[in-house]
């Protein structure tokens, strides 16, 4: 059996619930296809999140990493195509507010995902869940951890596949927030499980 590191994030900014947390907690310990899932939650912290993720990777030695994040306002499940070497944007949960910073001083401008995102999107649509590839993960924490995992795999010469999936708000979050579209928790979770199944068939 292979190991999948599945990460989610804590709440941040005016998003009082992060729907990725419940999904990661519920899928932790489960098996989907050839993968056993190890779920972890990352801090919305520019200084720590990358380190946290790399510590989990070194301890767990996963065959693949899927990181999940909330994209409040998006309507679809959106596997990300690329991570860029930039930290920028709104303050994190510790008030850190980097402007135009590099994530890795000597790293490349970007890394393409190594997850089978085209097949994931096709399968999501087949099972009735709206999905499309996103061509920007932004410049906030989600882009940051996606970049860090891909950079690690590259410089360590590891086969480990990795990438990021952004998701819409859950109904629970949308009720509290008031101004964003939402999906049921069950559909969000089914979407993530479907992507893991596709990954399992892919490799
Ligand atoms: N979404 C944010 C960070 C944490 C999360 O769930 C992002 O899109 O960068």
Task: Describe the protein.
The protein is an alpha/beta fold and 203 residues long. The protein has a single domain, classed as Peptidase C15, pyroglutamyl peptidase I-like (Aminopeptidase, 3-Layer(aba) Sandwich), CATH 3.40.630. The protein has six helices and ten strands; from the N terminus they run βαββαββββααββαβα. The chain has a six-stranded mixed sheet with strand order 2-3-1-4-8-5, sandwiched between helices. A two-stranded antiparallel ribbon has the order 6-7. Strands 9-10 form a two-stranded parallel ribbon. Helix 1 (19-27) crosses helix 6 (185-202), helix 2 crosses helix 4 (141-155) and helix 3 (117-126) packs across helix 6. The radius of gyration is 16 Å and the shape is globular. It starts with a strand and ends with a helix. The mean pLDDT is 98. The structure holds pyroglutamic acid (PCA). The site of pyroglutamic acid has 12 residues, from strand 4 and helix 4.
Ligands, ions, cofactors = pyroglutamic acid
The largest sheet has its strands arranged as: 2-3-1-4-8-5
Span from first to last CA?
12 Å
Mean pLDDT rating: 98
Number of strands: 10
Low-confidence parts lasting 5 or more residues at pLDDT below 50?
none
CATH architecture: 3-Layer(aba) Sandwich
Number of helices: 6
The helix/strand class is alpha/beta
Task: Walk me through the topology.
Layout lengths: L1 E8 L9 H9 L3 E2 L2 E8 L6 H12 L3 E7 L7 E2 L2 E3 L25 E3 L4 H10 L14 H15 L5 E7 L1 E2 H7 L4 E2 L1 H18 L1
